[in-house]
Amino acid sequence: MIFLRRQLPLLITFVMGLVFAAQYYVPHPASEQLLTTVNKWIQIIGGFALVLGVTSLFHLHAVKIRRKEAGWGYSFVLYAGLLGTIAVGLWANGKEAVNGALTAFGWMYSYMMVPLQGTMFAILAFFIASAAYRSFRARSREAAVLLVAAVIVMMGRVPLGEYLVPISGDFSQWILNVLNTSVRRAILIGISLGAVALSLKIIFGIERAYLGGGKE
Amino acid sequence: MGKSQKTRELWSPFRYALRITRPPSRGFRRTGHASLLTGLLFLLAWAAPAMAAELSAPHDVRVIDTPSDSGGGLTILWSKADYDGPDVRYQILMGEGAEKKMVAEFPANSHYVRDAKFPWWTRPAPRGFHQYDIKTGKGIELKDGTAYAVSVAVRRGDERAEAPAVQVVPEPNWVNWNQMNNLLLVLLFGAVVFGSIRAAKRREIFLRRIPGLDAVDEAIGRATELGKPILYLTGAGDMSEPATIAAAVILGRVAKRVAAYETDLMVPHRDPIVMAVCQEITKQSYLEAAKPDAFKEDSNFFITTDQFSYTAAVDGIMLRRKPAANFFMGSYFAESLLLTETGASTGAIQIAGTDSDHQLPFFVTTCDYTLIGEELYAASAYLSREPVQVGTLRGQDMGKGFILAVLALGTVLATVGVLFGTDLPLIILDLFKDLK
Q1: B308 with A116: Cβ contact below 8 A
Q2: pTM (two decimals)
Q3: How confident is the model over B118-129, as a mean pLDDT?
Q4: Does A46 contact B395 at a Cβ distance shorter than 8 Å?
Q5: Do A202 and B245 touch (CB under 8 A)?
Q6: Does residue B57 fall inside a structural domain?
Q7: What is the average pLDDT score of chain A?
Q8: SS3 per residue for B84-124
Q9: Nearest-CA distance from A168 to chain B in Å?
Q10: Is B200 on the interface with A (CB under 8 A)?
Q11: CATH code where residue B144 lies
């Protein structure tokens, strides 16, 4: 049992990790084919895993409805939406449009999903404003630097700002190209090394927490 | 201004040339003729090589299977000639006899080996040679294992000369030798990491404070005191992303402490595979904390794979359940601010950790603590303090030191190369290039 739960997954990780690290250096079509095949398998496993996910979702909300927990009405709406969409999707054979005309499934996507997603995304503008207001209050030296940099960049990005202070365009570009880019690259170097180190730890079985638990 | 004065000004550059050969006091007329003569000599001297060089068939023509490719490619190499210039054109021809067709034509002062970005260890010919690659696509199809006749011709007006055709077979290659520098650096870094792990087993390694990770206990304690749940998000990525794996590993550490305090834990997921993995990790953490009974199967639950639907659902959970601590680990996209700003409005203590550099400003402005980039990967070592884990961090730091040294050295070498017009620095610089 311990072999199936511990050693076998570690062995598979080790072999697959080395094979696909090597795959990066092999340009032969066979290597590309291997990668494509494995990616397809990942998609297939993902499809099966989705059943797990949907089961979890159904179970969680069924419990809420059964126990009449606070906000159980939302769970009911979720059930109605989920089952309704599945029914409409099956009825339309999964097609969003037939001969250029929207099916009920396509209509639900275009006139319900897309506007709802757009609404969520639009809220971002207000959240950016409120987050910026909190951050730009010059309470500390760092916040003051942030405020000054933000004002310069905003001036440089808006035509009126550049008209009023002509140098702001070049200065904001300098902030973005030199200060911003150099810091981003420094962060990216750290991230890349961290990711490589983590990958090595996983391939060689040093990091096992992702299997459930730390040491043996 | 008279005509003669205009002419004098027009010829003034040549007059300067005349001063070198002859005293300028011979009168305008003679000076003008001499200038004209000198100008013509200059023009002749400039144009002489191209005009004088007789057009001959390209020399040293070699056609090889393109090295380090996936097949369907041929590389043609030939030496530069005296007649190379913008007026002369090279033609690349494929096939033999009546089936011969031109696949490319370009000026003779272009397409050099030095433009092809080969590193020195795979360069097929000297940098001054001409090079042209024929690849499958754009009306050409090269089948692997089939022989093709390729030749190079040169043309200047009606004059034309062609080198004999060379037969070659394109084949796919098993090793991309251009990327061997990348492999070498990975192996070197791997050796440093494993060396650091061994060193860490022998003696203790100093770890700088990471306030965001010190605050984990504080956040869990606060949630316990308030009797409110803890919300933990593993980000938008799947299990193939290092950031998601790091988030799942940190979840294990957090869950162990949550189990010890018997606080509620909620982990909504966007990916069912990540959910399944995190369920196992959480269960194991409760076992290790000797609280298996406190583990709830539905603490990890799936919401949806859709970005904004997931965001709306998590925002709803935050507003209804009002968790005392929110953890945002892993990779994030546009939803980061929507999540953290909502969390901030509920008064929860918020700790974020991400390698999504574009989202870092949003996390920094809205969360109490943010693990920036590599700190996310360091979290597991920091929380566990296991020598094996801590040693990896030392290896990463040594890697960063090495990169800094290479950046400084590379800047100096590249500058020296430009100042002295030498290719010698390329021996070092090529080792650190990202080559495909």
Answers
A1: yes
A2: 0.83
A3: 92
A4: no
A5: yes
A6: no
A7: 91
A8: CCCCCEEEEEECCHHHCEEEEEEECCCCEHHHHCCCCCCCC
A9: 22
A10: no
A11: 2.60.40.10
Section B364-374 average pLDDT: 92
Average pLDDT over residues A35-56: 93
- Specify if B222 maps to a domain: yes
Nearest CB to A187; choose among B275, B281, B357:
B357
Same domain, B188 and B163: no
Query: Which DSSP state fits B293?
Result: G
Nearest-Cα residue of chain B relative to residue A33: B70
What would the pLDDT profile of B236-289 be if each residue is shown by its tens digit? Answer: 999 989 999 999 999 999 999 999 999 999 999 999 999 999 999 999 999 999
Q: Do B374 and A194 touch (CB under 8 A)?
A: yes
* Alpha-carbon distance B309 to nearest alpha carbon in chain A (angstroms): 7
A49–B396 C-beta distance less than 8 A:
no
Q: What is the predicted pLDDT for the residue at B22? A: 38
Rounded to 10 degrees, the C-alpha dihedral A55/A57/A60/A63 comes to -70
Q: Where are the domains of chain A?
A: 137-216
Its ipTM equals 0.90
Side-chain-facing half-sphere of A78: CA atoms under 13 Å: 20
Residues B97 and B33 in one domain: no
Query: Given B283, B307, B392, which is nearest A212 (Cβ)?
Result: B283
Domain count, chain B: 4
Residues of A in contact with B278 (CB under 8 A): none
Residues B32, B18 share a domain: yes
Whether residues B374 and B307 fall in one domain: yes
Q: Using alpha carbons only, how large is chain B's radius of gyration in Å?
A: 35
Tell me if A53 and B302 make a contact (CB, 8 A cut-off).
Answer: yes
What is the rounded CA–CA span in Å between residue B190 and residue A203? Answer: 11
B332, B234: one domain: yes
A94, two tokens: 């999964």
Q: Which residue of A has its CA nearest to B172?
A: A28
What is the spatial distance between Cα A58 and Cα A64, in angstroms, rounded to a whole number? Answer: 10
- Considering the domain architecture, whether residues B99 and B247 belong to the same structural domain is answered as no
Same domain, B360 and B243: yes
Alpha-carbon span B323 to B220, nearest angstrom? 11
Q: Does A138 touch chain B (CB under 8 A)?
A: no
Whichever domain contains B286, its CATH number is 3.40.50
A202 touches chain B (CB under 8 A): yes
Q: Does B411 touch chain A (CB under 8 A)?
A: no
Q: What digits encode the pLDDT tens for the residues B391-413? A: 999 999 999 999 999 999 999 99
* Statement: residue B19 has pLDDT above 50: no
Is residue B362 within 8 angstroms of chain A, CB to CB? yes
Query: What per-residue confidence (pLDDT) applies to B7?
Result: 38
Residues B274 and B419 in one domain: no
Nearest to B340 by CA among B370, B299, B375: B370
For B381, name the nearest residue in chain A, comparing CA atoms only: A207
Whether the Cβ atoms of residue B391 and residue B201 lie closer than 8 Å to each other: yes
The answer to whether position B402 is within a domain reads yes
Q: Taking CB atoms and an 8 Å cutoff, what residues of chain A touch B353?
A: none
**CB–CB contact B68 A56 (8 Å):** no
Please give the residue range of the domain that contains residue B417. 177-199+390-432
* Composition of chain B by helix, strand, coil, percent to 5: 50, 15, 30
Percent share of chain A, pLDDT over 70: 97
Count CB atoms within 10 A of the CB of residue A85. 16
